[in-house]
Amino acid sequence: MDPFVVLLPLFGAMLAMPVGRLFGARAAELVTTGLLLVAAVLAWILFFDVALGGNARTRELFTWISSGGFEANWSVRLDTLSAVMLVVINSVSFLVHMYSMGYMKDYGEQSRFFAYLSLFTFAMLTLVTADNFLQLFFGWEGVGLASYLLIGFWFKKKSANDAAIKAFVVNRVGDFGFALGIMCIFYVFGTIQFDEVFAAVASDATVVPYGQIAGDHIQSLTITFLGNDWHALTVIGVLLFIGAMGKSAQFFLHTWLPDAMEGPTPVSALIHAATMVTAGVFLVCRCSVIFEYAPNAAAMVTVVGAITAFFAATVGLLQDDIKKVVAYSTCSQLGYMFFAAGVGAYGAAMFHLFTHAFFKALLFLGSGAVIIGMHHEQNIKKMGGVKDLMPFTHILMIIGTIAITGVGIPGLYLFGAPFGTAGFVSKDMVIEGAFAAGEAGRAFGYFAFVMGLLAAAMTAFYSWRLIFLTFWGPSRAPEEVRKHPHEVPNTMMWPLVPLAIGALVAGMAFYPNFVGKKSDDFWNGALYVNEVHHEEASDGHAAAGDDHYEEANDNHGAATDEHTAEGDHAEKGGHHVPTWVLWSPFLAMLIGTISAAAFYLRGDPLRPGLLREGGMIYAFLKNKWYFDEIYDFLLVRPALLFGRFLWKEGDGKTIDGVGPDGIAALVASSARKIVKVQSGYVYHYAFAMLVGIAIFVTMILIRAGGGQ
Amino acid sequence: MITESFAQQPWLSFTVFAPLLGAILIAVARVMARTDDDGVIAKKDQEQLASNARRVAMITTIGVLVVSLVAYSQFDPSIAGFQLVEQAAWLGGGISYKMGVDGISILFVLLTTFIMPICILASWNSIKDRVADYMIAFLVLETLMLGVFCALDLFVFYIFFEASLIPMFLIIGVWGSKGTKEFAGYTMPSRVYAAVKFFLFTLVGSLLLLVAMAWMYSKAGTTDIPTLQQFEFSHGAQRWLWIAFFASFAVKMPMWPVHTWLPDAHVQAPTAGSVVLAAILLKMGGYGFLRFSLPMFPLASLDFAPLVYALSIVAIIYTSLVALAQEDMKKLIAYSSVAHMGFVTMGIFTGTKQGIEGGLFQMLSHGFISGALFLCVGVVYDRMHTREIAAYGGLVHRMPIYAFLFLFFTLGNVGLPGTSGFVGEILAMTGAFKVNSWIAFFAAFGVILSAAYALRLYRQVIYGELVKEALFEIPDVNWREWAPLGLLMAFALFLGFYPGPALDVFSPAVDLLIENYDAALSAGGQ
Fold first, then answer.
1. Of B20, B196, B203, which to mutate for an interface test with A (greatest number of A Cβ within 10 Å)?
2. Predicted confidence (pLDDT) at residue A544 exceeds the cutoff of 70
3. If you ran DSSP here, which 8-state letter would residue B391 be given?
4. Please, where are the H alpha helices in B127-234?
5. How far separated are the first and last CA of chain A, in Å rounded?
């Protein structure tokens, strides 16, 4: 059964086009969606078995690559980490398939679309069920391919094609790091199997890198990389994280994600919100043991994640395209997950990934419904008053918004879990985790905490701004649209309901497992917990930090136990987070919400004072901090120009000019003088004279040549 | 120690010379055909001759494929040394006719016999002039290429290696594309320019190879390859010999900066010529490195490895950038070939298991993928008679099957995991990383750039609105076009997911090669 949870979507992908051709698009939709439903059910069964029942296992299918020790098998690794991902991927994918049956009705080419969706699902599943780095990389690039195909799904549009290529190429920049990371792992460990690598790191085994005579304990091993000596695990961690930055659209490599909104909205929900973009977080969590012993790499994860959370939120503030608002919000939320992982709160990172899948898919699919209803309009400035036209969608979007902004009651515990929406529970865990890590002296913990709070305020601002501009106030849509909003089919609305339920309660329901008192049993070793004291970390700073870190980690766990058991918030102090920290995300959320209301509910929503169009803040944010322009100027144009230069000047003038053309000119001219007698085909003769072997063959041809 | 097990039947000789039978058959028909006073064959007879020649060539190449498969069935992949060896006295004095294959060469034999029927099929309708001559040239070329991979005597190798130039030269020069080029004060057909350029580059290399061979013969008293592989040339001599062999093989690869003949040759060659050039002829260089440079001159190989790395890296980055700027479809693919061959040379000279197997695998995979890409260009060239990228756009609306096939091979070219293109690249880079992380670091840039140029090409040809009037009625691929592409795709996909069948064949031979290489290095005090 295990392999089928991965393979069913592949069957769907392969069947969709032929079935569509033979029996029509609806049949293709039903086949792929049906297979996905089965896969989703299987995923939940496995989740109960593997994650809750503790039956972690790995199925090896057959050998993929085997060359020397460089060995990778096709495999299905099921542990809690992959089971969580399986549930997220297959559930959201099934709902998105179902939603797309309605959404794609107007557009045509459904078979191709469903084939791509299922292909994506398959690739994502191979990624999370890998038991070695190479299969992970396979899935990694596979989802990149599916993403490329789906972003460029409307291939007539130039902008869609550009966005698709941009997504693929920027991702490849990340993959560049990832691939080097895999090579480095092989160089150091002589294997690319997860179990062997992670066990070696955790037990501080002695490893001998290729070509070295003497090895060293892995946790303190230094290797030469690009001419300098580095701490081996730090190099590996940083390289892997570069891959994660590309896939998860982190700062510097984020530019493709907003453009990716060129794809159909269900794609944005599935790939660019709930699943693919979280692959980077998954990677860091999967390699938690490496990052735990590479404090500098972990610090990089923290910093980049925190900056992304902040940066993307600022850009999201003033976007007018409904999908771009949600896209930047995704980027920002991914930042949260990363800094949580960076400070060592892997459980919180995965928890946020899990809850985020619900509310972000909900927001995207809700936006898709609005877009359809508004006759394919995406500019929220041209909407307004949609709540009267689409009341059900309005309610769902509000649910998504209170989930992402984090509405809840700080300090109130019911049944051992904090009381609030999914986003409230998980985001608070992330922010508190950052603060606790800062307390414990972990690098950049406080920084992440502050950035997280600022981003939380802005999250509330842009989320409510979206609601206010789209749904509330007077309608700014054309008469025609207002009178006859498009009917949104039921297949599009039903999938939103489970997502909405998840957005409301998933946080409370799964809190004990992901981060609460059951978390040790739940993760069952899939996430590394830094238990062994290790003084010999790469540098003094890290060593000092780790002491505190562990302490905090332990206390944190203990405290959670206590207060979940008793539901008593006096125990909050034992959490190592003061009460003000506990309340701070909530307050940030309130500030953001109130300012959004202040700007967009009073007076004309199109002229929000300071933030009006034409203002400097507006220009800077609207242009996304000018990243695209800078990259275009620094990288894209020079590469093209340089290529042309090398071709014309390098190949043309230098190499050919000096070498062959000089000689060829000589040969050509002398040959011509010698053989003016016969018409044309000088070279036959020149050739025959110079070589003098195989005359027989040439003779025949030359005779024929003379005949023309 | 290199073992040699002799063959019961001369399967290799059958394989190598079988194409000549077809060639002779066509030649006889060609000579027998009635001619008028000017020696021109009547039009009706010409057509008859052409269609017969096509059929004979097709049957012959398929027959050769079958024979080569029989030979392969006699081959035991678990044995490291040479197998199916046959030897016959020839010139005497240590020079004999000797054939044999090992894990390194056998798959290239199969690649050749597999690609040839596809080439004949690709030429079926697109070649209209002098079809009989064309088919003869191709069949002779097949014999020569097979001979290169089977020869176990340096002199025999040399003859096959050099002679293979001739039919290729003619294929480009006679059946190449139409345009003209102003050059050195003359107006000449561009195909002639390309053919001469191709010829000149290769000639320089081969002359040096000839001299080196003569010198080796004078020293060792034999041209027997297994013997030479165990003959220990002095360190100083190895250097000179290495350079001479390198000059020849580097041109064939081609490596930067002696690559500039390739884009011209590809652009001018007919489709099948490009396919054979990309799929097989380029592989002779890499094969030569593994058969001669590494085993015979191990000390020099180690000395010069940094040079090879440098040239490979430059090739990967430089030609990828150049590919970004191309306006001609075939040129773009040709430049990407140079970049891909950069991975091969880089991998081979790492002297590591992953590097060498990666290089070998990359050559095999490149045979399928870039051969297929040239076929793809041929499909639209046959319809529109232009290779200019800007002349296309929006083909997906009229040619969905073509778009799908082209997409697959584009992704293979990009080295997407799941296609055979990935396996070779990652192994070669892994091998390089073990030697020096800088090499892998720079090579990995090629991974980014290949995505940029390949997807750009695909977008401009396939995607977008169909606005060019000339393309409104363009038909999708017919069975003669999609069948070979489908077959190549099946191979590229199969080896992408399960490269075992190829890697397992390479493995014992590569292990032996590395063992001897390392032993020679440590004996040489390195």
1. B196
2. no
3. G
4. 131-150, 154-163, 165-175, 190-220, 225-230
5. 70
Check: CB of residue A394 under 8 Å from CB of residue A471. Answer: yes
* Contact status, residue B327 vs residue B320, Cβ threshold 8 Å: no
d(C-alpha A681, C-alpha B174), whole Å: 8
Give the integer Cα–Cα distance in Å for B479 and A82: 44
Tokens coding A253: 């490599």
Residues lower than pLDDT 70 in chain B: 1, 36-39, 92, 182-188, 526
CB contact under 8 A, B40 and A707: yes
**Is B441 an interface residue toward A (CB < 8 Å)?**
yes
Tally A–B CB contacts below 8 A: 222
Q: What is the pLDDT of residues A183-205, one digit of tens each?
A: 999 999 999 999 999 999 988 88
pLDDT in tens, A556-583: 444 444 344 333 333 333 346 788 888 8
Q: Which ranges in A374-487 belong to alpha helices (H)?
A: 386-389, 391-405, 422-439, 445-471, 479-483
For B440, the token pair is 């892998």
Q: C-alpha dihedral over A193, A195, A197, A200, to 10 degrees?
A: -150
The parent domain of residue B384 ranges over 2-523
Residue B77 CB coordination number (10 Å): 19
In terms of Cα–Cα distance, which of A418, A400, A398 is closest to A408? A418
> For chain B, what is the domain count?
1
Q: Are B216 and B228 in contact (CB under 8 A)?
A: yes
Residues 6+ positions from A56 with CB-CB distance below 8 Å: A50, A78, A79, A80, A524, A525, A526
Rounded to two decimals, what is the model's pTM?
A: 0.88
Does residue A209 have a cis bond before it (omega within 30 degrees)? no
Q: Best residue in B456, B463, B476, B493 to probe A by mutation, most A CBs within 10 Å?
A: B463
**Shortest distance, CA B7 to any CA of chain A (angstroms):** 29
Write down the pLDDT at residue A41.
Answer: 95
Question: Residue B386: which of B450, B470, B453 has the closest Cα?
Answer: B470
Closest residue in A to B198 (Cα) is A660
Q: What is the DSSP letter of B224?
A: B
Cβ within 8 Å of residue A389, ≥6 positions away: A373, A475, A482, A485
The residue behind tokens 């798959």 is B107
Name the residue of chain A whose CA is nearest to B351's CA: A211
Residue A411: pLDDT band (50, 70, 90) is confident
β-bridge mates for residue A193, sequence order: A132
- Per DSSP, helices labelled H in A158-293 are 158-189, 194-202, 232-247, 256-259, 265-269, 279-286, 288-292
Q: Which residues pair with A223 in a beta bridge?
A: A230
User: Any CB–CB contact under 8 A between A698 and chain B?
Assistant: yes
Q: Nearest 5°: phi and psi at A364?
A: -65, -45
- Tell me how far apart the alpha carbons of residues B440 and A184 are, in angstroms, rounded to a whole number: 10
Of A29, A38, A129, the residue nearest A81 (C-alpha)? A129
Q: Cα separation of A548 and A544, whole Å?
A: 7
CA separation for the pair B84, B71 (Å, rounded)? 8
Going by C-alpha positions, the residue among B315, B281, B259, B334 that lies closest to residue B167 is B281
d(CA A675, CA A705): 14
User: Using an 8 Å Cβ cutoff, are B315 and B255 in contact?
Assistant: yes
Interface of B with A in 447-506 (CB under 8 A): 447-449, 451-452, 455-456, 459, 462-465, 497-500, 503
Q: Does B353 touch chain A (CB under 8 A)?
A: yes
Tokens at A274, concatenated: 């709930």
Q: Does B439 touch chain A (CB under 8 A)?
A: no
Strand B4-6 and strand A417-420: the pairing is unpaired
Q: What is the dihedral of CA A570, A574, A578, A580, to 10 degrees?
A: -40
Rounded to two decimals, the ipTM of the complex is 0.91
